[in-house]
Amino acid sequence: MKIDGVINVNKPAGWTSQDVCAKLRSRLHIKKIGHTGTLDPMATGVLPVCAGKATRIIEYYGKDRKTYHAVMKLGLVTDTLDITGEILETGSYAEISENAVREAFRAYTGHVSQVPPKYSALKVDGKRAYELAREGKDFQMKAREIEIFENEIARLDLDAGEIEFDVTCSKGTYIRTICDDIGRTLGCGAVMTALERTASGFFTIEDAVDVGELVSMSDDEIEELVIPADLTLINLGKAFLNDNRVIAFRNGNSTREGGYSITEPSGYDQLYRVYGKHPEGSDAPAFLGVAAIENGSLVPRKVLI
Q1: For 285-295, how does the pLDDT look when each residue is reduced to its tens digit (9 = 90+)?
Q2: Which domains does the chain have, with CATH numbers?
Q3: Where are the beta strands (DSSP E) in 16-143?
Q4: What is the Rg, in whole angstroms, of the alpha carbon atoms belonging to the chain?
C-alpha cells in the first residue's frame, strides 16, 4: 500500500507512541512511519501518525497547540509524578479550600518555567532521562519555558482529593509536572492519574480512529482516513508559484518576488506551504513542498513532488 499523508490515531493506554507506529508500519507495509508528538504510555488520545513523504514534514508541527483532559489526585508525591510511580511523600488535603485550588490553576497560565520529569524520554548527556532514573543516578533536569494558553478545572471533588482539568499548552509541556507543581503550591502534593490528549493542532479526538479498528480495516477504508499533509500544517502560510517557477522549485531553486504570491500569512518562522501547477496536468494546484521567505525570495526547505 502506498500512503503519503497523516492518520489521526487514538492511542490506547499502555502503548508507547512507538508501539502505535510499529503496528501501523506492519499493517500498512510502509517503512517510513513517524508520529508528531510523544504520549506517555498511560495516556490515551490524539496521536497523528505520518506515513511516506509526510514523514519529511513532522518537524513543522512544532508550533501546534495541544489540549489535554487530565485527572490529578491530591495528597501524593511519586518519583514519576503520576500514579504509576513509587510514593515518596503523602500529605493532607483536608484543609485545602476550593478558592486555593482555583487560584493555583489561575496562576499556572501564560509563560511558565517548568522542570521536566526525570522519568521522561528527554536526553541528559546523551542518555534518556528515564534510563538514568531507573539506574538510580543523581542528575538534574533543566527548567525550560513553556506556555499554558488555557487551564480550566472541569470537576473538583475535595472530599476525594480529585481534580479533573482541561489544559491547552505549547509543545514540550508535561501534564505530570503541572499536577506536581500545583500539588506543591497547595502544600499537599499531587500526582496525575489519567490523561487524554483531546486535540493537537489540526487533529481532534472526535476524528481519531482506534488502533484495533484501524488494523482490521481494508486498504480502501484506510486510504479514506489518510489526510493530505498540507491540510494539517495549519501554522504555515500559503504561497503560490507562477507556472514558470514550478520546475525551478522542484529543482531546489529560489524564486524572487514577483514569481510567487502569498495568499495566507505564516504563523511559524515565515514558513509556507507552496503550491503550483500540477506536473501531471491536473486542474487542481499541487502541493509542492515547504519554503521560507528569505530576503524577499521564496527558498525551498522541503521539496515533496
Answers
A1: 999 999 999 99
A2: 5-64+202-228 (3.30.2350.10), 67-200 (3.30.2350.10), 237-303 (2.30.130.10)
A3: 33-35, 44-51, 66-74, 76-78, 87-90, 110-114, 123-124, 127-128
A4: 22
0.85 surpassed by pTM: yes
pLDDT one-digit tens code per residue, 17-74: 999 999 999 999 999 999 998 999 999 999 999 999 999 999 999 899 999 999 999 9
Residue 108 vs residues 112, 149, 206, 211, 241: alpha-carbon distances, Å: 7, 10, 27, 34, 44
Q: Which amino acid is at 234?
A: I
Which is the catalytic residue, given 40, 82, 180, 181?
Answer: 40
Identify the helix (H) or strand (E) that includes residue 153.
Answer: strand 144-157
Q: Which tens digits make up the pLDDT trace of 206-244?
A: 999 999 999 999 999 999 999 999 999 999 999 999 999
The residue with cell 470537576 is 155
Q: Name which of 271, 259, 196 is nearest 235 in CA terms.
A: 271
Active site residue 40: yes
